[in-house]
Specification:
The complex is a heterotrimer of chains A (about 300), B (about 325) and C (about 325). Chain A has a single domain, classed as Orthogonal Bundle (MetI-like fold). Chain A is built from 12 helices and no strands. With about 300 residues, chain A is mostly helical. By secondary structure, chain B is α/β, with parallel strands linked by helices. In chain B, about 35% of the residues lie in helices and about 20% in strands. Chain B has helices at about 25-30, 65-75, 95-100, 120-130, 140-150, 170-180, 200-215, 225-235, 250-255, 260-270, 310, 330; strands at about 10-20, 40-50, 55-60, 80-85, 90, 105-110, 185-190, 220-225, 235-240, 245-250, 320, 325. In chain B, a hairpin with a 2-residue loop joins strand 11 and strand 12. Chain C has 2 domains: about 1-70, no CATH class; about 90-325, MetI-like fold (Orthogonal Bundle). In chain C, about 75% of the residues lie in helices and about 0% in strands. Chain C has a two-stranded antiparallel sheet with strand order 1-2. In chain C, strand 1 (about 170) and strand 2 (about 175) form a beta hairpin. The chains are: A mainly alpha (about 300), B alpha/beta (about 325), C mainly alpha (about 325). Chains A and B meet through helix 9 and helix 10 of A and helix 3 and helix 4 of B.
Chain lengths: ~300, ~325, ~325
Amino acid sequence: MDSDLWYSFARSRITVVAAAVAGTMVLAAFLAPLIAPYDPFDLASLDLLDAHIPPVWAEDGETRFLIGTDDQGRDLLSAILYGARISIGVGIASVILSLVLGVGLGLVSGYAGGRIDAFIMRVADIQLSFPAILIALLVNGVLRGILPSERQDELAIYVLVLSIGISGWVQYARTVRGSTLVEKNKEYVQAARLIGITSVSIMLRHILPNAMGPVLVIATIHLAVAIITEATLSFLGIGVPPTEPSLGTLIRIGNDFLFSGEWWVTIFPGVTLAVLVLSVNLLGDWLRDALNPKLR
Amino acid sequence: MPSTPSSADFVAAEAVARHFDVSKPWLARAIERSPRVFLKAVDGVSFAVAKGETLSLVGESGCGKSTVARLVVGLYRPTSGRVLFDGMEMAALPPAERARYRRRMQMIFQDPYASLNPRWRVRDIVAEPLRAFGLVDGRAELGERVGALLTQVGLSPADGEKYPHEFSGGQRQRISIARALSSNPEFLVCDEPTSALDVSVQAQILNLMRNLQEELGLTYLFISHNLAAVRHISDRVGVMYLGRIVETADSGTLFSTPRHPYTRMLLEAIPDLAMSGREREPTGGEVPNPLDPPAGCHFHPRCPFANARCRAETPALKQHGATETACHAVEEGRI
Amino acid sequence: MIAFTLRRLMQSVVVIVFVALIAFSMFRFVGDPVHQMVGIETTLEQREALRERLGLNDPFHEQFARYIANAAQLDFGISYQHKKPVTDMIGARFPATFELAMVSALLALAVGVPMGVFTGLYRDSWLSKVFMAVSLAGISLPTFLIGILLIFVFSVTLGVMPSFGRGETVDLGGWTTGLLTASGLQALVMPAVTLGLFQMTLIMRLVRSEMLEVLRTDYIKFARARGLSNRSIHFGHALKNTLVPVITITGLQLGGIIAFAIITETVFQWPGMGLLFLQSIQTVDIPIMAAYLMLIAFLFVAINLAVDLLYYVVDPRLRLDRGAAW
């Protein structure tokens, strides 16, 4: 089956391109401290005299700053590399949180059945009737109401991961519950129960491996959604603080200067975000079709 | 062979019943004013198996025989009645002690494709009971034991590295048997172990099971609708119809002189290879809806000998000659 | 049918009560309501008196019952930030959001359906491929980025469109509408396009796959065999059969559009409920957040209930599988 997967991957040219683009971007983002020309977090190195410099090919461009600087004199290329690191990091962390939450609840729901199942699925239905972004906004608002205001900047990333993570568990839970309902009636589960294997062990060691296929597809597609959600929250001003900008924060900063003609501060992070999300989406689409043509 | 189970029997079921609640959701019930509905899958079944013998339960699909298998090994809890294993009621034991008894009984399932976890290697599947009961120390001993088990069922130790999908149905059933034997059980419940297999493979598996029984002194409860397989392997046979046992006898007696009209009907349905030219009556009627079984003797709508008593009174299992039969007609000497 | 309706109704009530519980818990336990309502100079005794007067010392279930009773009368308390009744604030903002959402939905239908029909009928033409590529971009591009790009192109570079606000509005007895003035209509264009783009791609893909599905069926082959014109086959038979799910999905998406308006309204500084909600999150103005949550929940439940019942009436075999709302 692995060689089938590889074959289907190699045959789809657009998927190969998407994988190459996504891979390069993720690698560049995580190697940001090594490859970025400047450290945008080092406030001491920032010089306001360097602010608002356009890209190198524009009239006032400087070769020091390939694609220009923002309002605080940050090198935009470095800021984008570090920003992508935060965006992808928050995205992956949120997906992992959603996955663990959703898979766990789905397993329990499907295996236990009865009232526990009814309760979890009812909550899932209710949450599913709201757009994830709204859930994320609400969780975000509530968390910020609970946390002391002086520590909010420093905890912002955790608040983000928590709000995006909580907003995305339902899809995992439903899928895993479905697989669990099928698997738990199979005889190998009865054979395990027969020799006194505990329910937790049956769920984790027997059922989970058989339910993970669709979960990986959901996780890939969800990663694109999580990155968009992070960017949106940051753009709306309730994500990561401007001192540690993600792609969304950079776009928000740039949006304020769009009218003064400084388009580059918005457009470059925007294009980066769009290309990143598009390539992850393409990968997810391909994985879904390759693993199970009838999944949707 | 006594009909009422005594503590001397190795495995015994005492008036075991299992009902499933198949009612609609309460709201629909409240609106349609429909009552709760119970499926009486097993409705008061008693039998006993002596050490070293094979008892078979036969019957059409839906008669409750697979439920009996699951009740005996403890996968289901009986709604009433009790199951005794070596004189102890397992369901009444504290969990810690139950594990000791669990080790001594194992089950082989019907579907060789669903009874092995497709994501596990064969060696892990076979080793799971060994690990669960803590029967071996260290990896080396575990590997050795798994290899020996695989050899014992006619596979090679190298097969342990493979996944279930690399094997045929018959080979998979051998893996199931190896796994079942791994905890050195004394009692095996076999739920239609051959019915999903090709006819040529069925005989191999049955022979393997017989050889293992002789070698290891195993006791079998064999569940099947396949009368040929049952005849091949059983010492005694119980015939089930709609959740009740209607006849039990020695294998030889049952096949040579069946008493209960239902047993006769089942045997009539076997193709007569000897072309003895005996008259064959067509199997009459359909199995009734198990949710709403007929009153009295469940078999009366299909029975050519039914009378008013059969329609009203449930017959009890009684000794008639060499067999035990639950039939008014046999009791009254009408057949 | 009765059981189905009753169950659906009960589920709806459960949802509303559940959401109300969350809204109330937010209101009651996130921060101290009293602390939010009074100034620094208020003494402890005065605070305690206010606490008693607001009933914050009563048992939880009494407070919750009171909250629900008040909510049923559209009383959601006073905004911490603005010191005004939340209901009035939301009421004043509702027309802006409603008009934006409706125009977006209509736009999405008006453009998405023809594009879907075209890509379904001529799936191999280059234009179809362009449409499909655009739709993938529509799904991949975050809403706010589309809005910014539109502003950049049409407001900043070309200078032909206003970049923020509603333009001039007319007050029709408490309902302010931007649909009656030229500047109002002009201001509506870019926000509506931004908000409708995602729904449009959704509708287009849905119509396309439904068309492909229907065109494969036997009765379409039969219609061809009868010698009906392509036109009447495509529009009289095929399209008609795709419209039921399309309209259903659009209806279900209406709630989503209203929620997604939060982002569009922020980009275009559109004075609607979404902008109010976002500001309330930034300032942790819990009464507004809670009220908005309740309002959206009510909208969702009402739309879902209506659609489910309609579906049940139209075809009892169909059990609508509501997809992910990511």
